[in-house]
Design goal:
Length: about 375
């Protein structure tokens, strides 16, 4: 019996060194390849991705290269041409696209696409990204493929609404979470208690309203710092807002580093806050729960589905609601302890093993 051959294309690995989408595919492929009568490979070409290089090199057809915007554009064209020849010469049973750029036609393969979220469609005027072609490219790919995967029911509802497709074509498979560090790096002893924010802060991430909520109560600002981990350093615009709100600059702290440092920050935080207006799934709240950190997050988008009753929910459009949500946990030790307990229970619903098993079942059903 010949194995089921699954190929994941080069797209996301051409421009993402690290990130949620490329991590999802690496977690997925490494498990799909271990299932009976199954082979998973990345047709990655000349890529920049650290996960492929460090964890999935044995599954990767291609080679890591240096990254620059100019080189990314050149290699995107080269990878597209090469993958067209490669995939048509050896058509896989399943071709799973990793992003929305149109591909050369591949015959005799079942085509699968993961649609992560509908952020561009929900917030078309909220950023310079309203000029980005993602909306039209996504719609074209959605119409072209045989099957679509969404990481939440929320994403599926939005996809059906905006792209007017048959819901039967879409399967919801929750992502897992997997931020682990054998020896977490704890923050220095004696630092001020803090709230923790992780990842990007601009556009729909809603950091400005969180800053306003944090600044609205002088006692809250006095008792807790606000620590931001990852993405870019505080921008000129963010620093200007901090000044306008009368916050001491030293109370809003940016840092970055390894997963071990992030896990240490989760473990020591008084509260993890996620004020995003929209996510397709949202890893950080689950990572915080796994580290034993209480969570407060938005009550919109996928969050009622993914965090359920294991987080303090607030209205992300209402500064007063955000501020009250923070204080409901920070000044109530019983509520904080309850959220830690509920968080540990909630994360049992999500794992990369379960995610991969459901993908495998879908692939098999498509072939049969």
């Amino acid at each position: 019996m010949s194995p089921m051959r699954v190929i994941y294309d080069y797209q996301i690995f051409n421009w993402q060194r690290y990130g949620g989408i490329s991590r999802y595919f690496c977690e997925l492929a490494s498990r799909i390849d271990s299932f009976p009568h199954s082979q998973a490979r990345f047709a990655a070409g000349l890529h920049i991705n650290g996960y492929l290089e460090n964890d999935c090199q044995h599954l990767t057809i291609g080679k890591q290269r240096s990254s620059s915007i100019a080189l990314n554009k050149i290699c995107n064209r080269l990878n597209r041409q090469w993958s067209g020849y490669y995939l048509n010469a050896q058509p896989p049973d399943i071709l799973h696209y990793t992003y929305y750029r149109p591909q050369l036609s591949v015959k005799n393969s079942i085509k699968v696409l993961t649609v992560y979220d509908m952020i561009h469609e929900r917030f078309p005027d909220s950023s310079k990204q309203d000029k980005d072609p993602v909306i039209s490219l996504k719609a074209a790919m959605v119409a072209k493929v045989d099957s679509i995967i969404c990481p939440s029911e929320c994403s599926k509802r939005d996809l059906v609404e905006f792209c007017q497709i048959d819901p039967a074509k879409v399967t919801v498979i929750h992502h897992g979470y997997g931020l682990t560090a054998p020896v977490p790096i704890a923050p220095p002893a004696g630092i001020k208690p803090y709230l923790l924010v992780v990842g990007e802060r601009g556009w729909y991430k809603n950091f400005d309203r969180l800053l306003q909520a944090y600044a609205s109560d002088p006692v809250l600002c006095s008792d807790f710092d606000l620590r931001c981990f990852g993405a870019t350093a505080l921008t000129v615009q963010e620093l200007a807002l901090i000044d306008r709100l009368g916050l001491p600059r030293e109370s809003v702290i940016w840092q970055t580093g390894s997963d071990a440092k992030l896990v240490g920050l989760y473990q020591q935080a008084a509260l993890f806050v996620y004020p995003s207006l929209y996510e397709g799934f949202g890893y950080p709240p689950l990572e915080a729960m796994a580290a034993g950190c209480p969570v407060a997050c938005s009550n919109v988008s996928c969050f009622p589905e993914t965090v359920a009753d294991a987080a303090e929910l607030f209205d992300p459009y209402d500064v007063d609601s955000i501020a009250q949500g923070l204080k409901n946990v920070l000044y109530d030790t019983a509520r904080s302890a309850e959220l830690v307990k509920l968080g540990k229970q909630n994360i049992q619903r999500f794992s990369w093993d379960r995610c991969a098993a459901e993908h495998y079942e879908l692939y098999q059903s498509l072939l049969n």
